[in-house]
Amino acid sequence: MITAAVNVPAMSGEFAELVAEHLDDLVTYAAHLVGDAESAVELTAGGVHHAARYPPVRLQADGRAALYRAVTRACRAGQRFPPRPRGPARLWHRNHPPFEIEFRGGDVASRMNTVKRALMTLPFERRAALLLRGVAQLRYAEIARALECSPEAAARLIAAARREFDTIYREIAL
Amino acid sequence: MRCSLLTLSSHLDGELDTTRRAETEAHLVGCDRCRNALEYLREEVSRISDLARVHVPDAGARAFLEQLGLIGPDDDLPPRPPRPRPPSGDPPPWLAGRPPGSALPWSPRIEPDPDADQPVLPFPDEVLLDEMAMEPPSPPVDSLHLDTELHLRGRSQPPSDVSLSVPAAPVENAPDASADVTAPGAADASEADPEVHVAGQAFPGLPISAPAGPPPSLISAAERPVWAPPMAGGHGSPALEPPERSPIEAPRAPARFPPGPEPRASTGLELEGRAGLGPDARVGAGPPGSGDQQPSSGRGVLPEPAIGRAADDPWSWAPRDPIPGDEPPGPPPIRSALSGGTGILGPQGREQPEGPLVSEDGAGEPAPPDRDDAPDPLIDPLIARVVRPPRRVRAGLLARVRDQLGVRFALMRGAGAAELAADRSTGTSPPPRGRRRDPTLTADRQPEPGPPQLRSAAQPAQSESGPDEPPVVPGPPVYPPWFGGGAGGPAAALGPPASAAGRPGSTRPPTIAEELPAPLRPSYRDDRRTAADLGDSPVPGRHARALAAGGRPWPRSWHGLGRSLAGVPRRWTAVAALAVLLLVIVLLIAHAAGGPSPVASPGSATHPSGAPASSAPSPARPSLTPASSPPAASSPAVSATSAPTASPTSTGPAAQTYGGGGSGWTIQSVRCCYAQAGTGYTRVVFELTGSSGSSPAASISFPNPTTMLISFTGASPGAPLATESGGVIAEMVPPTGSAAVFRFTLVKAGATVKDWDYLARGDASTPSPLMYFDIG
Lengths: 174, 776
Known about the structure:
Chain A is mainly α. In chain A, 65% of the residues lie in helices and 0% in strands. In chain A, α2 crosses α3 (59-77) and α6 (124-134) packs across α8 (151-173). The longest helix of chain A has 23 residues, at 12-34. Chains A and B meet through α1, α2, α4, α5 and α6 of A and α1, α3, α4, α8 and α13 of B.
């Protein structure tokens, strides 16, 4: 009798559906978070890869927040898929081929404008909070899960981010 | 309830509970500052939500999931949501971002979109004025119950605050009246339910001024109705807001629309809802009731050939990011309303004299319009924005540097203002630790009339519009709501000192700016911030902290170092590092090889003749050491005496003396320059005769590193000797005089005497005494 162990979680189908459902928003969010659509695909893949390894228990309830949390962490730490060598190893390790998929609108998302420049000057967490609310349309509870903070802290983070964004935008726009 | 930006932000996102929301809404009724702040927040939300979207097609999504191992190659792609549609319910920014009819007392009637499966442009790409159809009003016109519809194509939602006055078709039905539904207050008497149809869609709730006039088909091209976006939050409703793209605008001053005493009939198309433009102002309209078809001023007439260009682009419906220099200008009427102007810009970009667009003789007669083909500096950019696809603009290096400098200076000024407020409250508060004081902001110095970064109210919204931009008219500066609101000076903007708020006895509640004074401390680990940075750092924002710290710190991790080397190819970096390492190693080896060699063992060198090297006891056999370590002084046979012919300033090793010091010897011959087997040294053998005592003393010195002198004491040269060479000895020059001094030229520097011996009974080739030296 042959016993084969397959490393496929039981909810892979549901997780794939969840990813397929939010793929556009995830890539859009990552593109504006890092300012580059090409890297956004790799970072989104890195986040989804990690989230697939450690899926949330309540996939339907926490799946979206878990995806955004994974992508946010991937963007913050630069975790790409396929992974790139880090540290001194990058000097002699050849890079893996980039994660290539077809997508549209990347040039528009990468195009820098006043709003984008003001956005890129924000700290990472504030920028992420602003995008999670404005682009991904997440609720405060989901933003709190994505940013790993409390909902009250998420609300304060968004308010502070809006205030700082407004200040910077006015400076740049003028 | 206090004014709170946090509450407003949560209220805007719908995250407040019922009680809190009710309190906030009640507070908003009576607090102008919070209303203005809410409008600013709405602008920011719209800016963020208008960012471009990335769409991954199904093939890309399948590849994505397959490469991640979430689906197999034979599995079906999980169902995906339909392709994101454009925000068809949102009108263009210059048409305000409110749902249709929200500012009107009647509810809008939304008709289904006949082109639901087709992408709809977010802006009216094509306006077919020829299709404007005026349906006969169901009720009599005399009761102002018009059902006039304006058909535009390309939009599914109507602009809420578009106030178009179109020539009423059923003039014959209402020859004595026209609809001039301009304000909700005036609309209650009209009971009108006009609808503007854009591309076959009904847009109810749009105020329609339908003066008497001929049907549209009878209007010539020059008299076609103008189409221009409304410019102000007209109709006296706070829900109607100016365009979203103007970052600095005056606070929303509700345009006053005095209810018209009576509906007046006019010809042509009227543009309403423009602040500063009175209800009597009409563009291209003839005298009320005159029925004359006055040609319009050409303002806002859409050039038909250019319209609809974006329909060729399948992604033209995607939300456009505002592009610097390409954004629609702000609402001049609002700015002009505050600055006292009319808001109507003339051909030269200057404001027209205050007052409605009437002629000098008054009586409501409109002013004669400009030439029909004269470009309107206000409307034409808008039209160009509508019909022209966005440009591809990339921020250059100078632009990025400019932005960074602007942000840093803004934060510095903000920090200086907060410091000023603290100083003014206490008078003794020292500057916060780790922050530099701004010398321009001191407690005893009156600040400037306004922060330089705040633009004046009459300044155009976009300074990058180009040379066609109207000149800047100075006006009162406009402050963000958290500066204290209003158009006051910095004193009003700063408000009372921050520390005074919330103190016992202080009557002023804390401002919004005081409520969120410091950046939030994140709950995650950020390796770029240290504990000292996050502790009690009074400088908000990492930019200001970096500036206060004196510049960009050296990257603290490999990650940062990698960023700094991001522009250099990694392999070239590695090659350069290896080259430097190899160079260091080579230098070390070369330095070690250039010095004196370590002590060589005497070895068991045999004479070339085969005689034992130690056939005769040597009277003195000092240990052979390099010149740097002369033999011990206890040896009686070796004394450190200089050679007779050696130069005292020789740069080679110090002179060494070998032998016992006997005399009466004659150097019979010299066997020179053959290599010694096993060691590789070059041996020089001197055959001696004439004495039987101890060996003569031979002093070896080095005038220079490549010259060696062997001087015998107690021995004289015999027969003439020949010049020889070999091994490390390039040339041996025998003595020419009575002194037995042999000069050897060495092929390499640093050669020393490695071994020597005195053989009293000679070797196999000769029985005479021998004295030899091994040079190496």
